[in-house]
Amino acid sequence: NTEEYTQKEVASILGISQSYISRIEKKVIKKLRLHLD
Prior knowledge:
The chain is mostly helical. Helices cover 95% and strands 0% of the residues. The protein has one helix and no strands.
């Protein structure tokens, strides 16, 4: 049970990090576009 629980925890953490990274990427892309223009 402990192993399964940790796997679920890791999956949830990875999901949060992926959404967080995608938000940062969008912000960076917007800044790059402003500089290019």
